[in-house]
Amino acid sequence: MTLAGFVAYSGALAIAAAIPGPGLTALIARALGSGFRSALFMSIGLIIGDLTYLTAVVLGLAVVAQTFGTVFLIIKWAGVAYLAYLAWGLWSAGISAEKIEAKKSRGGPAASVLSGLAVTLGNPKTMLFYIALTPTLVDLHAVTLADYSILATITVLVLLIVLIPYLALAARARGLLASPRALKRLNRTAAAFMAGAALAIAGRAS
User: What's the whole-model pTM score?
Assistant: First the structure.
């Protein structure tokens, strides 16, 4: 691969990641509801999902992914159900003022990573980028192991650069709220974002 190819891939990925979608919406909701640390682990899950698609495309499995659409449909609806569950929890449970700094998402880091992975694997926008767009940016027939390593590194770095500012701002906004009324609005807003992410995934192409 050429430098121009890597640059084109980086630019396209940055634009795709920055455009609001189910993944970014779910990440912001997690940062609002549970803080920076939990959202950071969720972003790791999102990145693992992207690397999964990148690896599949480089290995020539795009056709397999399209053929076995039922598998991806199951993943999609599992992601929808999980996001809906999180939304309901945020709407009904709430965070009290004295626990806002210590609040942790249920299940710990592993659950956050898995939720991010589920969102990415079930996100049609991510599927479209890797299965349809990446082959136009990268000559898959010429990709070597070294090229793949560079692409994977670029993917991780670009996604971190794009996602971390979003979750940091959302987490800071969460930390500025202290009154019970403000916290109730915070939880309801986070729940609405999470439910919106679930509806966005459910409503897009399967």
Answer: 0.64
